[in-house]
Write a structure and sequence with these properties.
By secondary structure, this protein is an all-beta fold. The protein is built from no helices and twelve strands. The strands form four sheets. It has a four-stranded antiparallel β-sheet, with no helix packed on it. Strands 2-10-9 form a three-stranded mixed β-sheet, with no helix packed on it. A three-stranded antiparallel β-sheet has the order 4-7-6, with no helix packed on it. It is elongated, with a radius of gyration of 23 Å.
Length: about 170
Amino acid sequence: PPTLSIQATPDTTGAGGATTLTFTIDNSGQPEVSDLAFSMSLPSSPAQAVIADSFASTTCEVGTLTAANGGTSIVFKEGALERAASCSVSVSVTLPAGGTYSFPAIDLNSSAGPSALTPIVDVIAETPTGGLANFDFVLSNATVLEGGTTTATYTMTNVSTTDRVGRLSFD
């Protein structure tokens, strides 16, 4: 039977970032196959991963891809490949919290039978260190002569995807 492989790009991102899962179906050395199908439920830990911004595409000339924006599952069905052909399905997935997301092993079904299970694919969503907020401080002029002025700009970025940052003070 044809084979299925999965790659995550990038395999490390920030919390709230996205990774693109690419599923490659390879029918090298096999006769034409039909009824290609696979499905994947996205991991719910450390938080529910969701399909991002309806970015889902396929190079498979035959087949139906279902991957709805905000959804939690990817389904490809009714696919077909000629002898020695390959195609791919790509879906962008948002990882809302920090931690390791383990995308499950899945198999590819076809008229030639099921393929071997794919390996589990892990993607790390890093949580920024230093709390919920990052601060940047910039002076408009690094050197200020006596009696001169400069503008100090403080920029605070809330790096949490789930917490509101408030009650900030400068000492």
